[in-house]
Queue: 2 jobs
Job 1
Amino acid sequence: MNMCRPVDVAKWWQQENPAAQRRAPSSSSPSSSSSSVRLMEAVRCVASEQRRMLSSAQPLSTLPRLRRSSFPQQRGRSRHFLITATSTSGLQVALYVFTEAGELSSFSKMSVFGPVVKIHPVVLASICDSYERRNEGASRVIGTLLGTIDKHSIEVTNCFSVPHNESEDEVAVDMEFAKNMYELHKRVSPTEVIIGWYATGFDITEHSVLIHEYYSREASNPIHLTVDSALQSGKMNIRAYVSAQMGVPGKTVGVMFTPLSVKYVYYDTERIGVDLLQRTRVTPSRTKGLTSDLSQVAGSAARVQDMLTTVLAYIEDVLSGKVTADNSVGRFLMDLVNKVPTISAEDFENMLNSNINDLLMVTYLSNLTQAQIALNEKLVLL
Amino acid sequence: MQPLYLTLRLSSIVIIKHYQEEGQGSEVVQGVLLGLVVDDRLEITNCFPFPQHTEDDADFDEVQYQMEMMRSLRHVNIDHLHVGWYQSTYYGSFVSRALLDSQFSYQHAIEESVVLIYDPIKTAQGSLSLKAYRLTPKLMEICKEKDFTPEGLKKANIGFEHMFEEVPIVIKNSHLISVLMWELEDKSTVADKHELLNLSSSNHLEKSLQLLMDRVDDMSQDIVKYNTYSRNLSKQQQQKHQYLQRRQQENAQRQSRGEPPLPEEDITKMFKPPQPPPRMDTLLIAGQINNYCQNVKEFTSQNLGKLFMAEALQGHN
């Protein structure tokens, strides 16, 4: 497919505004003027692309995706652009700039349409796990997302992978399997519904659109989640999209994937479980035993101590003038200090002692009970 | 036994989630653990939950559900070998007949199977509480023979401490999951949970102690039963003894008078020995009480630590 050549557009733009050319991107963070250059570039490119698509007679169902490699290399650092366009209110452009290091910074995101997608860590862990277990030769894995839909948000709580075959020009998804699995899952948690599907991999390909169509038969307005488990950009990008119709009604209609904002939510107990898992990433063998008893309290206390030292360091800096004082931080610190309740020493002693007495008594009783049943055991065996 | 490595990256999250969804009642949620055995380790790599039992669900449904689930998972290359099962518990009260039976049938079929006990209430207090148990070989023997009389237990020399053996758990993650962890740490805006440093203890203690008291009541009833049985037994022994003696005396008298001795009657038919009460329940109750006591002690030790910390904090004020 012929893409518009941004080189032509850039040349035209530079001719029109020679002043803008001088402000070349020399610093690491893009200045606003150069961003506007890119912005105009992008807008014109997509607009011309759309015009071309609308004028062509054949029905198109692929989305307007501009490959990274088709953009020219900028001088100095090489920057890559990926542009996705939303179609609802005019042409709003989300611009993502990737630097060489692979950092993602969306600095001129004008607006993101649609509800917020809340993801539980189960889902992501499942996806990574299925990616690791994929068949030989398969480059990506797809599966169904289950969850609940709210007015303002979509909560993804579970998922399962679906076997599929993908080749150059066709894609086959085992829908029977998907339906079966969904039935099984529904028996356990009847409140979950199919809300979309996921795929590993970085880009959205033409096949994705077809698969998306399969899923729109199962759920109304399915969402599509991509997880870059191959770490193509140096980071695991987790993005969610909703499909939207685009084009002139009656004539050629296309499909565009609009990004949604993604948040991570946890249940309380999930949070604690994930905390424990976080600690595995520090050890080189990636293992961790489960501790119990006082050592856990000690660990927790150590963490609080770390936080306190950080806060203290900050305060020292402010006092010695190295860092300017921030009022909101100061207010939080005030809250913190006031949280320790001021009780008269006597009252506190009493409370403490009574609590300690309770706990000691309970310990004594449980020891007694244990001794009792041990004795009973021995007597019976006599 | 050998240490048990649990690749817990998926399983723990799934278990936690399932409990949260299925309700906060005192129902137990159960499910199946899947994985494989590697050298001397048992690796658990996935799990799926069972639906709750409703009135019109037959057992057949469950087996079918399990089979279908495993078949489907095999299609996507997930380990489909059964290696155990898991159950949630309420304040640590899981030592029951049902658990014993299930675990026995599992362990009979698969040598290394374990039952994973997850305590959501303890986890909500700040520390993930997952324990893996297996039946000791001695207990397996006894269950096989179904010999629960006191003599049988005495032969095997089983106490309540030798019923279950705990297997240590290690969590192991793959590299990709580590990347995921870093990513989550980066992006997640949920605050850290400091539940572990919570000072309130009375609620939890009350409930634990209540359960403990109930169990001790059960235990005392059991003991009374056993005492009556042993008393009956000894009384019967005495009666038998007396009867035999009288018999002998009579026989001696008859012999002295020259009459034929009375036939020996079958003693056992006359004095039927009382039924010895099954000791399995006692063992279970004792085990359960032991468990409660352990939990309570752990809890109190943690709380004592926290109280002393609070004292130190107050002292500086």
Job 2
Amino acid sequence: KMASGQQWVLVEMVQAFYEAPAYHLILEGILILWIVRLLFSKTYKLQERSDLTDKEKEELIEEWQPEPLVPQVSKDHPSLKYDVVSGPPSHKIIVNGKECINFASFNFLGLLDNERVKVCALASLQKYGVGTCGPRGFYGTFDVHLELEERLAKFMRTEEAIIYSYGFATIASAIPAYSKRGDIVFVDEAACFSIQKGLQASRSVIKYFKHNDMEDLERLLKEQEVEDQKNPRKARVTRRFIVVEGLYINTADVCPLPELVNLKYKYKVRIFLEESMSFGVLGEHGRGVTEHFDVNIDDIDLISANMENAVASIGGFCCGRSFVIDHQRLSGQGYCFSASLPPMLAAAAIEALNIMENDPDIFTILREKCRHVHKSLQGIPGLKVVGEPFAPALHLQLERSSGSRETDMKMLPQHLLVCFQCLDRQIAVTQARYLDKEEKFLPSPSIRVVVTIEQTEVEIEKAANCIREAALAILK
Amino acid sequence: VTRFNVNQQMLNFASYIIICSCVNFFSPHFLLQNNHVARNGGMYKKPFVEYFEETPLLVAVLTYMGYGILTIFGYLRDFLRDWKIEKCHVAREREEQKDFVPLYQDFENFYTRNLYMRIRDNWNRPICSVPGAKMDLVERVTHDYNWTFEHTGKVIKDVINMGSYNYLGFAENTGACAAAAAEATQRYGAGVNSTRREMGNLDKHEELEVLVARFLGVEASMAFGMGFATNSMNIPALTGKGCLILSDELNHASLVLGARLSGSAIRVFKHNNMQSLEKLLRDAIVHGQPRTHRPWKKILILVEGIYSMEGSIVRLPEVIALKKKYKAYLYLDEAHSIGALGPGGKGVVDYFGLDPRDVDIMMGTFTKSFGAAGGYIGGKKELVDYLRTHSHSAVYATSMSPPVAQQIIASMKCIMGEDGTNLGRERLQQLSENTTYFRRRLHEMGFIIYGNEDSPVVPMMLYMPAKIGAFGREMLKRNIGTVVVGFPATPIIESRARFCISAAHTREMLDTALTAISEVGDLLQLKYSRQKTPSLEEDAYLESQD
């Protein structure tokens, strides 16, 4: 009975073959032949064809000489020897064996050797040890991290925050998480190196506008609008972003945030704001450039900052609406594929936040000191002060910049000499360092002067005099 | 007519099943033999045994079906959410920005919304103690199927930790290392506030670099604050346009990012496959750059010591032989193998008994075996001098935190035996014993384990998507914390659970864990292996002597 049943189905199948339309049979036949071909074919290699004999190939392999792995670095390359700091880089810093007053570390609020912060870090060390031994996804999320994220979100008055274990990696991982190939990013020329690396990793189309020049930006946006009208379908899926910094590290001035927000709504572009230098510095409560200009924080899509300046810890964070930030938990490369921040450093950051919240006067004091330093450094022969009066990290550039990079570069050793002389006189300043060949728009050489809350008036006067004398001696 | 259609449907279905199994047939794990023994036996001083057992065909089919069903349900749920029949938990764009170009494509997040979200409770589990051999987990519950979590306030105590990268057990809050780190915190503070080239180069960093160079047996080394960034910031400094990078198929995201940022041409060779690598090298040198046929400026081979998703160890003797023959440069990323392999804990070079000077660039991280954070690069003095002047990290990124540097110094001295105790040697011994024991027992139980028999990273195959979630949850019920991984970190049908053995695990802990794994394995039918247990003496022997 089974056999007849099977036979019956077989007959049905054969009948089906006869009744099927020809094209359908042909299609199925081609499919089956294709499967058979796949089963038996070798994988297709691209460079298969070669007109060279084996002997010639061996000769080519013999002859090929690679370049040396790294080019030789001359012994007196200026960046080869680093200044060695013995002990903590605090207000009184010991550089190359000499005790100096620190005008070079970004310790704006003086939290580096704050006792409360150290006590919290020690308590955390005694509870958790040092390292986290895993990325956030695999038992590397500690309750300290969650607490720090909540506190940061509350402090900045946003919905959510996400922490990274390295300041540089923060914006460099955030940008490629949102901006992909084919998207357009408008960036200020003075953007810092980590933003440039983030842009490079994102493979998007990048358009630079002149530093703080809103007309130039508007021109680029208008051009883009014209492009969009030619191809509306593509325009509907191309995301656009503007990336700016709150306080630029290279030029120490502020971005015009209210105009940027206007441009955002006019041309439908999202804003990413990098606030490493302005977090904990600008604004009545230290919330950064949005508080400084009184802009609604929800108008900024993403704020990114590192905790290595005012907060005096290690790492970085991004904050914004959950809609934006949550995406980075699965696509931020520096978040998913890297070990999380050591808990003691997170605890130090939490305590720093506590201090910032309890005592908002420190921001006013810091701004006063910045103004004082800015005024004292005016009138140095040969050097001009670059930066806003309330910026804590100023640049001293050549007064008569020749405008060409080469001649400015030749003045480089003189900047170094000024720094050395200052170090000799117990004032620690440093030359602002850049990678000459890697920067897109290399800033002019300058000396970096950093203002911290721990500097006294006497020390500021002494520093100004010292720099003046060194400049007179060397740059005349 | 309907019966005709049904027959046609069955034919189509059958052809698709055949195509899927063909695709599976050609996947890398099928092509590797079982119990692969190294050829070129003369280069290896001891047996090199790696297992990559084939995926059983029925399991592969069922896994595809599982994903298919999940996808159908995903579409259904999206439809219900769009029509507001189901409550939508997904965060939405602001009202004022509704007419902006959408920030995410709906399709990009399909997987996250519909597959990942169902089993999300297996990842990002918060802990509130030292990530040692036993840890305390923060208990969390979800009332809306993993969209949001609430902390109940209770703590699950003494969960056996099979997930943290704690190979030598240095994740501890007591002992010499912790005391040294505490002292460093008291003296230096937590942060540094400046870059290496400006005012952030502390004496601690110089001390650390000298010690690392001595540990590895190289001329000089340089330390960085983040392991991921070590790769992504230094590979671009070493190669550029006109150079060729040959990278292993399964390299870590940081190596891939570094290679992409450098601007060099990238070619990928099959995982740990020396024939594939040799062929690429020959083709590259003979044919030169594409289209112009100019010779390549330099060729850099990127490999890892232990591949953390596969548990395999790189065939270093063969790679070095190839590199010398074809004059290429070798970049070895020892993130997981430093401290975990080798009689002295000095990594995969020590494990094979080779000369560290043969590896041009030795890179590694301090996160795994040293209980700290950060990365290093070691090599000849010219290399390190060049990196000191040209590395992106030295100029733009803050240097390593001093207590972290102190922890590395203390733990490294302990491993080398310079702290006056035998602790380092004991831990290395313990790790090696634990690894052998654990792998042997899992084999005996009948699970499919991947990787080299000496690697402390043990991936155990789960395959089916539902089993990923089930395994993680069942193990947690039995108080064991495991790590499960699925797509996209692994190929779609090869989801796995990954165990990281630590020197801090005692035999009792391993036995407890193994009992629980066996129990869950029976419950979920995970014992797929069809081989009898290979005994370690007979078929792990070298074949031909070259």
